[in-house]
Structure prediction request, 137 residues.
Amino acid sequence: MSVINELIRTEENGTISFGNYMLDVKSKLEDYEHDGDLYKVKTFHEITKLERNGMFVYESVPGTAVTNFCVKNTEVAFTVSGAQDAQITIQLEDDMDYEVFTDGAAVGGMKTNMSGKLSLSVELSEGKAVDVKVVRK
Prediction:
């Protein structure tokens, strides 16, 4: 999987893709419109962060590239790649139970904190993409 050279884009299937973990200097793109919302992405080798309408959506340390990011009523799904293992935090519903899947395998249940954030670790290496799905129980 490759990085997103334009920092953020809309895919033909209606999802968004964002992030470029190969950049040495922090780059950002603001006011990207998708489905009536405005997105802001900041990305480089140390971090990738996505906001929607000024609110937190996604963050990874170190930086990653995310494709086919899709938020539905009860789940969030995306494919992530990077140069090394990453800690990913996503915004979900406050104080809720979720089941986390990577590459189709259940990795366990997790509960969001009072602010709705859920953190997970993903094993990554250059050239290897991992499918992530988080489903509300």
